[in-house]
Amino acid sequence: MGGEAVSGGIGRSVRRPDGPDKASGVFRYAGDLRVPGMLHARTLRSPHPRARLGRIDAAAARRLPGVAAVVTAADVPGVATYGLIVADQPVFAAAEVRYAGEPVAAVAAVDVATARRALAAIEVDYEPLPPSTDPERVLAADAESLHPAGNLFREIDIRHGEPGVDGPVVVEDRYVVGMQDQAFLAPEAALVSPAADGGVDLLVATQWLHSDREQLAACLGIPENLVRLTLAGVGGAFGGREDVTLQIHGALLARATGAPVRIAYDRVESFLGHPHRHPARMWFRHTATADGELVSVQANVVLDGGAYASSSPAVLANAVTHAAGPYRVPHTRLRGVAVRTNNPPCGAMRGFGVPQVTIGHEAQMDRLADALGMDPVELRIRNAVRPGDVLPTGQVLGAPLPARELIQLVAARPLPPPPTADVTGLALPGGLPAAAEPGRVRRGVGYALAYKNLLFSEGMDDSSAARVRLDLTDDGTPRVRVHSACAEVGQGFVTIAGQIARTELGVEQVVLAPADTAVGSAGSTSASRQTWMSGGAVRGACVAVADRLLARVARAADLPAEVVEAPRRTLRIAAGHIVGVEAGLRIGIADALAEGPIEADYTFHHRRTTALDAEGQGDPHVAFAGAAHRAVVDVDIDLGLVRVVSMALAQDCGTVLNPLSLRGQVEGGTAQGLGLALMEELITVDGVVVNPTFHDYLLPTIADVPDLDFVAVTEPQPDAPYGVKGVGEAPTCTATPAIVAAIRAAVGRDLRRVPVRPQDLVDLPTRPDLPTGSDLPTGSDVPAGVDVPTRAGVDPAGGASTA
Amino acid sequence: MFRRGSDRAGAVHGPAHTVLAAVLPPAAVPVGVVPVTAGGTTSAMFRPRTVGEAVEMLAAAHDSGAAVALLGGGTDLVPALRSGERAAEVVVALRRVLELRVRGAGADSLTIGAGVTYTDLAGWSLSPGLARAARVVGSVQIRNTGTVGGALGSARPAGDLLTFLTAADAEVLTTSPRGSDRLPLPRFLAEGLAPDALVTAVRLARPGGPQVYLKIGERQAAYPAVVSCAVLVDRVRHRLTCAVGGVGLLPARMEAAERYARDEVDWSTGTVSSAAARRFGDLVVEAATRITPALPAGPRGSAEYRWHAAGVLAGRAFARCLHVTAPPASGPVGDFAAGGQP
Ligand SMILES: Cc1cc2nc3c(=O)[nH]c(=O)nc-3n(C[C@H](O)[C@H](O)[C@H](O)COP(=O)(O)OP(=O)(O)OC[C@H]3O[C@@H](n4cnc5c(N)ncnc54)[C@H](O)[C@@H]3O)c2cc1C
């Protein structure tokens, strides 16, 4: 629709309505909510990664003055377990605890201090059991089952092309990725109020209101319509709020006490309370022709899902289907398992399985380039997928996916000036405090190319509903009210929804109703899907409203019946008016609304996909977005300290609805990928997280992240509203491997472990980068007759590249 | 969380205060017994204005059997109270004790009050090395708040100030009901502070030559040290001292390397050969591997890496304090900077 002259439509860098409040510190996050008379809830967690749970005695805690209620597994009236995909996670541990940090009880009291004292007064008999923490051991025939559902969340085996076909150039190795945390800044919090009708009302920071509602209702044993959720201010999510954490506990306490309950995590609990990015152990074998055409890729991926399933099955599908990367490969065998251990549960995080395999396939591409004596950019250009290519799943790649162009574009960006001898301070690896020797700093440049699926896959119909109402304000100006359950977690739906409504309806004033469960599900704010899906729903509802408005005007103007039925051929909306040039008609929207408001609902569906069959074949992904990063790093070669000097990104963005928001997404995605490359890792020792604070879990600061040189490729996605693509995840996938590649280039050693630590970059007596005694396939597992080079991980000199 | 600033006198909270109110000098009470809640415990907070008052409060609290904590900037203490790692029924806050916030210079020594912050030190021209160590602490918020007394009280294995003071042969000045005391830093760290005593100041010699402080961590700024190193040269007394943090439970002196430097440096010119610089780093690595008890394996930096890095940092700091003769082709420090291989 022509919304010309209405400011703030699509394509504009409309500012976030909550921006100033967030920047000035007055924005109310979920944790800031207070109501008079509310109780404060805290959670008791198991210190043991695995233990038989005996008696839980809360009598002393209940007797403490000021304690209103203590709830445990015995107090869950409905289903005892919950989960995003399979309900295998107990609301509270009942017979056995399976990870350190698992909730055992929760307390509501008059204040936090009393609640804490009550936690300390709860006596729990734990009989510690030996934890299983090695993901490569839990599937062994003699391994103990850690859960009635067994230790395997999912196994996928993709076979494409012919088995055993190899090129003459072979590169094979193993790679390890550590556990990244979403590390959002506002810890989990909710305000839960019991309602007179026996239900509960929750104000909560989440990514998916309706999924929370479904799980809450099941565990509370009440109908879904009695569970009402409203989104509270979300301070970051990145996948970490897709799972239920404190919602059910808070609701149980609110119902037990009959009072509003504020339940919240502190920083340490936040690190323990939500699922993390899956640590991965991966084996890859790439073969190519002598002139650099990929012939085959084999991969075997083990994802450590931790104690409970969360979204492990879906993460695994992403990891395995993307394991060969955005390259044309005639013959692939891509396998993977997601397994249960007694490590912390892992689930959704930005990239959702793709960052891990991208680290692997991009390291392989660089080593293949070395083995071929070829430029790494050239190798990628030569093998990059094109629309129409058949992917390892048999899916035919749809347009657009400008993989070649992306890597070419990023390689053509100007390089930063070379390091100078007199450089000091922050510009050297380690910054001011390290004061590196410029003479001992080496520069490296690295590239990575990836693609990431958009929206939910494997046959899921993750539709999004929206309701749009056009009415008049008290002073008679037209106003659009958009109602969607889309969780704003920072991605910018709050600007996009308004931009779409302005564009479609030619009305400047748009208000966004609070996201809640009074409207249909918008699906999860994840999988790069909300601009496409909920944007599509808002647009659909706006179009329906506009059609009714135009029909009303046509009717009122006594235009012929065929115009009333299809008014868009004759009438259009332009800046607050309905205009019909041929009909000589021009009427203000406000006047047309005098008769009453117009409201419409719309549910947006993406195209149907299919599940994978036994051979891993199907049409699993709706669409993809590509990205290519170039990283330039400086490394202090004596100390192994790394500074990222520059990052360039070319990304396949589809139509850009809000350039400022886009920039925010790609900069954030780049920073999060940088964090995984260099510092972000939750470390567990025998299943126990040893660094659950921002003192020990380091996030990149402004001093670590260089300005991003960003080029958007804006070829429209045909089946998406306005031609958009999701943009938040793709850059996270490529930033990490590009930096790792740059470090490799600087120090001249193959790197198999991410995050890359200083100790991995200097010569030490022992090389600690890979776990030893692994079960992942090595040379013995590849098809017979293939000459396999040295076993990586055993050969400390590294490398398994042969030509 | 701390609720501060209420000057309402005598809000009675908990037994500790009731006991204390009877013992304390009247002047001390009105300036604020503020109930504070940090973590699971409710405490009374006292705000003395003089060292004398502080000691009386400490002693009274101690006699009453209450768990007491001194509060400097609170950058370590407050998180510890919140997490329940520490508990205190009485908190004695030192911010208002002006005499602790003084730093001064004598003919050959510098005295720094326990209440002096990193920011206060960061621009101090009388001790450029110390200023440098202070500048690389934490973030600006931590530098504005964290104090010298807190650094000594926390005694972190790689505390920046602690590493520097260890190399500087600093002395710690304390006051308790038994009077004032002055003891070498290692003894202070080994014996700990009596429960009714507080650190009032540290004293160190005025710089007698170049001083270099280096630390490394895993990002570009605002990081806790994985390994740190201070090298101080005294051109007058022909001495070089070196301390390494992040390897043992406390920063450690590298005595063999110091002795080696004393003999190898040409003190008339302040020069040393590049081979000697390399050897210095190697000696530091050797000493580092022998430090006991070693720091338990933590979230980052293997022990082997820490030893290695200690050697590299020491070699670099050493070279920056002195003139290195006969530079190798790869640059003045290029050759030995990689030294320190065990
Ligand atoms: C985000 C962050 C970053 C940090 N970065 C660094 C860093 O880069 N380098 C570094 O070295 N440290 C760092 N620290 C640690 C800390 O800030 C410092 O060690 C600081 O000096 C502590 O001082 P304070 O005044 O805040 O101590 P407080 O927290 O007030 O007290 C610390 C301890 O000392 C005791 N104490 C306080 N004053 C006295 C006194 N006069 N006599 C006896 N005992 C006393 C207290 O009882 C307590 O046990 C960091 C801390 C944080 C939170």
In a few lines, what is going on in this structure?
The complex is a heterodimer of chains A (803) and B (342). Chain A is α+β, with helices and mostly antiparallel strands and 803 residues long.
SSE layout:
The complex is a heterodimer of chains A (803) and B (342).
Chain A: H1 19-24, E1 39-45, E2 51-57, H2 59-63, E3 67-72, E4 81-82, E5 89-90, E6 96-97, E7 103-109, H3 112-121, E8 123-128, E9 152-160, E10 169-177, E11 189-194, E12 200-204, H4 209-220, E13 227-231, H5 247-257, E14 261-264, H6 267-273, E15 280-288, E16 294-304, H7 312-321, E17 331-339, H8 354-372, H9 376-383, H10 403-412, H11 431-434, E18 441-454, E19 464-472, E20 478-484, H12 493-505, E21 510-512, H13 530-556, H14 561-565, E22 572-574, E23 577-580, E24 585-588, H15 589-592, E25 598-604, E26 623-636, E27 641-652, H16 659-678, E28 684-685, E29 688-689, E30 708-713, H17 730-747, E31 753-754, E32 801-802
Parallel strand pairs in A: 1-14, 10-31, 12-13, 16-17, 20-21, 27-30
Antiparallel strand pairs in A: 1-7, 2-6, 2-8, 3-7, 4-5, 9-17, 10-15, 10-32, 11-12, 11-14, 15-16, 18-26, 19-20, 19-25, 22-23, 23-24, 26-27, 28-29
Chain B: H1 14-23, E1 34-38, E2 41-46, H2 51-63, E3 68-71, H3 77-83, E4 90-93, E5 103-105, E6 109-113, H4 118-122, H5 128-135, H6 140-145, H7 148-154, H8 160-167, E7 171-176, E8 179-184, H9 185-191, E9 198-205, E10 211-216, E11 227-234, E12 239-245, E13 252-253, H10 255-264, E14 271-273, H11 274-290, H12 303-321, E15 323-325, H13 334-337
Parallel strand pairs in B: 2-4, 3-4, 14-15
Antiparallel strand pairs in B: 1-2, 5-6, 6-9, 7-8, 7-9, 10-11, 11-12, 12-13
Helix pairs in contact in B: 5-8, 10-11, 11-12
Flavin-adenine dinucleotide binds at residues 69-77, 94, 114, 137-138, 142, 145-147, 149-151, 153-154, 156, 159-161, 193, 198-199, 224 of chain B.
